[in-house]
Every structure is written in C-alpha cells, then in structure tokens.
Amino acid sequence: MTHAQPACTAAAAAALLALSAAATAAPPAPEAAYTAMSAEELADYLIFEAGGFDLDAETQDGGTARERMTQDRTQKVCSAIARSGKDLDRATAAKISALADETIEFPEDGVALGDWQRGEEIARSGFGYRIGHRVDDHDSRTPGGNCYACHQLDPNEIAYGTVGPSLTGYGRLRGTSEAMLKHTYQILYNPNLFFPCTTMPRFGHHGTLTQQQIADVMAYLLDPESPVNQEPAQTAEAESAAAD
Amino acid sequence: MTCAGARPCSQWRTYHNDDTTVRREGELPVIKTTTTAAAPAAILYIPLSVVLSASALADDLRAPEDVLQELIDNNESAYLTQSEQNIMMMPDNAALWTAEEGKALFEEARGPNNKSLETCDLGKGPGVVEGVYVELPRFFDDTGRVMDLESRLAYCMTSIQGFSPEDPEVKQRHGSDSDMMKLQTYIASRSSGLPWNPPMDHPLEQAMRDAGEVLFYRRAGTSDFSCATCHSNTGKRIRASVLPNINEPHEWTKAISWPAYRVGHQQVRSSHHRIRGCYWQMRQPQSIPGSDAAIALMSYWTDAARGEPAILPDKKR
C-alpha cells in the first residue's frame, strides 16, 4: 500500500492555531486558523490534528488508523473530481488508469480460476477490516469481498445492491478465454484500470483479497458450474430437486 | 419504560415485540381501519397528542408522520417509501416517549449547581427550544466555535449545571436511557416540520460546512469509500437498503432526521451514532463525538437538506 505524505499545510495551520492559543488563555478560538485554510486543508487539519478520529487505533493490517485515513494519489484525485460534480476529463482518466496499470501484480503461475464455492462465501461476506467501536477479528474469520453489497450475482439472491452493475450470467455471457480471465483479474486487483475513479474497491491493490481469494471469486463469476451462470429457473429447479 | 400514560398498554407491547404486527388483518383495529393512504396520521396522532397534551405542539410544528407523508405525496422516492411498516407505525414511535423524558430532564434542577437547562442558549436565546435544532450546527459567541446539538448540550450541562465531562450524565451518549439521547430527542422534536436552516453568516460556519463537504467526498482506507460512494445516487441499494441521496433534499431531510428510533436496535439513536456507524462500514477510524470533524460533516449534511422540513423524531430501520 502506498501513502502520500501528510499535508504540510496542516502542520502550518497547527502552528497558527498554537499561536492564537498562546495569545489567549481561554480555549483557542479557531476562527483565524480555520478561515485561513482552504476547505481541503481544514478537512485534513480536522482529521489529523484536531482530534476528529481515533487515529492511534491499530488496524488488522498491522498499521494504525492514521494510515487508513491518509489518502493515496488515486483517492485524492478521485475525491476532488467527485466533489466538483464534473465528469472525469480524459487526461486525468488516463493518469488514474496508468497508475493502476503500473501497480497490478499477476500471480506467478498465471491467472487461473479457483473454487467457486469458496468464491461465493467471499462474495457474500461483508466481514473484515472494520475498526472503531467493533473491530473485526481476522483470526476468527477470513475477510470477505462484500460483492453483494453492490452487485447482483446469483439470480436467486434477492438481497443484492445496485451500486454496481448486475453480474448475473457474467461467465455465461462472456466466456472463459484467457483474455477474459486476465481482464477479470485486473478488475478485481484494481478496477481503475478500466473504470478510472470507479466506486469499486481495489481488492488486490489494498491486499484485502489475497491472490487465492481473487481466483476463487473469479471462479464464482466465470465457472460454468457457478450459480452466477445458471438460468434463474434452472437454479430453482435444481434446488427443489436437491431438497427432494 | 413503564406502561403508563394515556396510551393503551397492550398497544405498546405489541409495538415493542413485533414491529410488523400492524400489517396483519384485524389485530389492531384502530390502526387498521384508519390507515388508509389518505389520512392515517391525523387520526393516529390522537393518542399521543393526548399523552403530550402538557406540551402541546406550537402552531408551526407538525407531527413527524404528517411531515413524512407530505414528502412522500410530493416526491417519487424509493428511499422515503422503503419501509411500509415504519411509516404506519410512526405515530407510535417510542422516541416520542424519549422526548417527553427529555423535557422533564431539561426542566429539572440537576447537577452540582442544582440548575435546570432553562438558561441554556441553544442558539435562539436562553431556554428557547422551539426551532433551534433545524438551525444547528451554528457559531456560538461564548465558545467561539461552531457547535452541534450534542456538543452544545454537553457545554450547558458542564457550564450551567456543573457536571464534569466524565459524569455519566454528560459522557453516556448512546441509548434511549441516556440523558443525552433524552435531551436531544426532546429538543429536536421541537423542530418537527420546520425547514432545515443552518446559519451561514459567520465565516466559521461557512468554513466548517465547506470542510464537511470535503469530508463527505473524501475517499480513503482499504475500501476506497467516501460517504458519496453510497449517498450520491438516487434509488441505489446496498444489499436490501435503499440509500438516501444527499443531492435530493427531499430524501436527505429524512436521512438526517435524528434522533430516530431504530427498530433494528430497539433504541433511539443520534446523528453522531449514524456517523460512527457509516465510518465503521467504510473501514475508516472511529469518529469522535463533538469533534470539529464530526460537526463539520453535520454542517454540510444539514445544509444539504436546507429548506426541507425535518421529521422529528424519526423512525428508521
């Protein structure tokens, strides 16, 4: 994981605040300091210097909450674009995409499909990486990918999100060519390659899914046996047959 | 909560045990026969207005169920209409009791100084409660800061009543039984139906609102989430929940109408409890109540609902 340097402007602002605090004994009036900063600087200051968050908490990935809050380049650029309400311009899109391309690491033995059943568990599970008042204990359970929060997958599952497109029939419609496997791996590793500033998380980039887990989720998406690639009626029939 | 007051106890228990009961034919004839699409609220409101008679709502305040119904009637929104049983049970909102308890607490002489909160200035002068909540967060001269309701209450409880910040009265922030939730719910309920109108005249109010906007769109962490990831589209779902869109004030007013009774938690919850929950879902650090970061976020989200009527107290999933 790469992290940008904390903004030095926040440090400058802190110095300003310290000055005004020294001048008056009462609790520091933040007016001068706050209004001297840009909105971005003030936001960073409120997060990193003004006690907005419990930043010293440890995280599951062996770091601190402070690192979680520190933006990398992709996060920073994509946040500013979203806030502006403007469409992503071509040049920026190309940069974000190139940044993704540079950092994608492929498995040594090539991209292959894993086990769709394990992949299904990963797709359903929203467990993992949550910190704060209830910390997910990764020793008790493996973190998931939470794909159902945003995507439809198994056509028989009704509790699916719609933040992302439906992936029902993903493998049935697109096949399992080597090119398709590579394409899907790249999306799971860092979807910004094809969808710059997408809301989909960078599972491989952040290491929130291991290469084995990515292979398993890919099987859930692409394996002809996976429920994702069954016709809805067929799956229902198969289920009732199995229940008999 | 004891089974007292004008409301029939059986109805109270039914509500508490099974929130979906009203949907069954014949079980609660009063509710069933009166809840036609046209005029459920006025009739259902009677039992509670009896309970609340000592503190009858002023003319410009409106029952939360009426406010919600009007929003639903005037707008097409899958978010506003997603929970039919919550809408039907609005008049029987347990948070209304919490508000009544808060009223008693507000008026009671308490703390080392044995004072009530009736000299607490929530933005419109000492003791004024009506209409203050829809104009928070705001800048306060006496502290030189922009404050939200929760931090302002903590300030009044310490400076007027003499509580220490470590006393449970001030420190305990969550749960229907906490003083903080009771007081917040009371004060907020006295803004029901009024349009959100947080002041932006002071430079700090504007600066905090703008920083809050940055925070709302700020992506970070292992999932690259920002609030906007989930709250800047209309009609999108996370799993089975329809998400409110901050760019649609008629949706966002319900989103920020806290305190609300959360059926899933069986507790009245605050704005900050919601913020904490969403940061947790985002895999980002725990937000600190009363921090300027949390207040900035609230300044932005309140500004985003400007002009739309508040639904207070609300009832949510």
Describe this structure in words.
The complex is a heterodimer of chains A (244) and B (317). Chain A has a domain at 102-229: Cytochrome c-like domain (Cytochrome Bc1 Complex, Chain D, domain 2), CATH 1.10.760. Chain A has helices at residues 8-23, 31-36, 39-48, 65-69, 73-84, 90-103, 116-124, 147-150, 170-174, 178-189, 203-206, 211-222, 232-243. Chain A starts with 7 loop residues before the first helix and ends with a helix. Chain A contains 13 helices and no strands. Chain A is mainly α and 244 residues long. Chain B has 317 residues and is mostly helical. Chain B has one domain: Orthogonal Bundle (Cytochrome Bc1 Complex, Chain D, domain 2), CATH 1.10.760. Chain B is 42% helix and 6% strand. Chain B contains 14 helices and 7 strands. In chain B, the strands form 3 sheets. Chain B has a 3-stranded mixed sheet with strand order 6-5-7. A two-stranded antiparallel ribbon of chain B has the order 1-2. In chain B, strand 3 (237-238) and strand 4 (241-242) form a beta hairpin. In chain B, helix 6 crosses helix 9 (179-189) and helix 10 (203-217) packs across helix 14. The longest helix of chain B has 15 residues, at 203-217. At the A-B interface, helix 2, helix 3, helix 4, helix 5 and helix 8 of A face helix 10, helix 11, strand 3, helix 13 and helix 14 of B.
Mean pLDDT figure of chain B: 85
CATH topology-level fold name of one domain in chain A: Cytochrome Bc1 Complex, Chain D, domain 2
**And the CATH topology of chain B?**
Cytochrome Bc1 Complex, Chain D, domain 2
Q: How far apart lie the N and C ends of chain A?
A: 50 Å
Superfamily (CATH H level) name of chain B: Cytochrome c-like domain
Secondary-structure class of chain A: mainly alpha
